[in-house]
Specification:
Distance between the termini: 43 Å
Largest sheet: none
Number of helices: 9
Strand content: under 5%
Number of strands: 0
Shape: globular
Structural class: mainly alpha
Helix content: over 70%
Length: 243
């Protein structure tokens, strides 16, 4: 059994993050982003980034609204999001763009594996992997990678005016390495968390427990850290668009 203090901490962390995500979603609705996909990215990443993402959205995300872009265009000025956002923050937004797809993919994959246990067996549990966690990670990666590329596609295509084939190619080029680095950090952190849980509390956490999703929040932060350097390079080199 997990101790009550960990259960309470997990619930509080999840509640705060959910509140931040709802606050952003409520503000995005009347103030949509210039880049439509960011309307999803900001609230989704608040599910693990909590108050930090809430602050970043109101400090920098609000500079990149559709209304701000329209006003700047009418005045013949550069968009505020381009001239008032420091490059390190731009890189962070690029990493979060990748992380949003990973977050949604992981929620879907973990939910499917929990409610349909046979899925873990299909992906290698008891044949390739002795631990169910590793088999679910395969499914996690498939969903995270697919959604990440879709998110990148809808960022690049409108900005560059690309066709479908070119858009898919550019999305793969821009986000594949970032996604891999994010998942490495996430998997590593979840492995450490589950190992600690098992060593100290006699069991691993499952997808129906707040402790699992609290660990996932920390793992997503680890994914952000491991993907940040490669996003710096991708954006600086022009392979990935500034968000």
């Amino acid at each position: 059994m997990f101790p009550s203090w960990l259960h309470i901490v997990s619930l509080l962390s999840l509640a705060v993050a959910a509140g931040c995500a709802l606050a952003i979603a409520a503000d995005v609705f009347p103030h949509p982003q210039r880049m439509a996909i960011m309307n999803i990215v900001w609230p989704v990443t608040a599910l693990f980034g909590g108050v930090v993402i809430l602050w970043a959205y109101f400090r920098y995300g609000r500079l990149a609204t559709l209304a701000a872009a329209k006003h700047a265009d009418e005045e013949g000025e550069d968009m505020p999001g381009k001239i008032e956002t420091p490059f390190p923050v731009i890189v962070g937004k690029g990493a979060l763009h990748c992380g949003a797809g990973c977050m949604i993919g992981d929620i879907i994959a973990e939910g499917l594996a929990f409610f349909v246990p046979a899925i873990a067996i299909i992906f290698g549990y008891q044949t390739i992997f002795s631990e169910k966690m590793y088999a679910v990670w395969v499914l996690d990666f498939i969903f995270a990678f697919g959604l990440g590329i879709v998110f990148q596609y809808f960022a690049i295509v409108p900005m560059r005016g690309l066709g479908v084939r070119e858009g898919i190619y550019e999305a793969l080029k821009a986000d594949t390495l970032s996604l891999i680095c994010w998942q490495i950090g996430m998997y590593g952190a979840m492995f450490v968390a589950q190992t600690i849980f098992k060593a100290h509390f006699g069991r691993v956490s499952e997808a129906d427990m707040p402790e699992f999703w609290f660990a996932m929040q920390l793992a997503m932060i680890a994914g952000f850290v491991t993907s940040y350097p490669v996003n710096w390079w991708l954006i600086r080199s022009g392979i990935k668009e500034k968000m």
